Amino acid sequence: MRLFFAIPVPDDVKISLCNAVDRLAPIASGVAWRKRDQLHITLAFLGEVAPLILPHVTAAADRVCATLPPFVCRAYGLGVFGTKRMPTTLWAGVDPSPELDLLHEQLWLELEKYGLKKKTSDFRPHITLGRCRSKTNNRNLVRATENDGEIEFGDWTVKGVTLYESRLTPHGALHRRLNQSPLLG
What pLDDT shows up at residue 185? Predict the structure, then answer.
């Protein structure tokens, strides 16, 4: 099973994000845009794991979330990963916060007990809006994101973490909710 933990994005913020995508799509080339139901903040990408580990990772998230309180999250600004000449990912920013960092850290501390390892050492919270095909020049897209660097998409209270299964298909990834761990601290 291909699994990841994420913070769901509420519908009103998704609408704002989709409006930004609608403005950017005509000037972009070779971008696979995320569907509305795929918008989230990834906390921990586990990759392919055996189904037998599912109860353990679910319990790990439940333990972490039971000790942490709900907190406010804000989505704003646009940016890209990759280079300005050849971006690889278009994203909406997420305001860094100690609560978000602590949730990410604590979750990985628990997951590592089951042999799971982080793919990268730095946590850069964001909402992926689209992925660019390799060797596609998208300078116009990069310029547009720089002009919208401070655009507000909204804020919301994060009340829990969701475990998703991601199935890759020829038409993109399909995400299925497997578990919700509420923030109770």
Answer: 83
pLDDT (tens digit, 9 = 90+) per residue, 138-155? 888 888 888 877 899 999
pTM value surpassing 0.85: yes
Rounded to 10 degrees, the C-alpha dihedral 131/134/136/139 comes to: 60
Q: Which of 15, 10, 147, 163 lies closest to 80 in space, CA to CA? A: 147
CATH value at residue 150: 3.90.1140.10
- Using DSSP's 3-state secondary structure scheme, residue 50 falls into coil
Cα–Cα dist 48/70, whole Å: 29
Give residue 156's identity as a one-letter amino acid code.
W
Give the chain's domain count: 1
Domain extent at residue 101: 2-182
CA 35/CA 139 separation, integer angstroms: 23
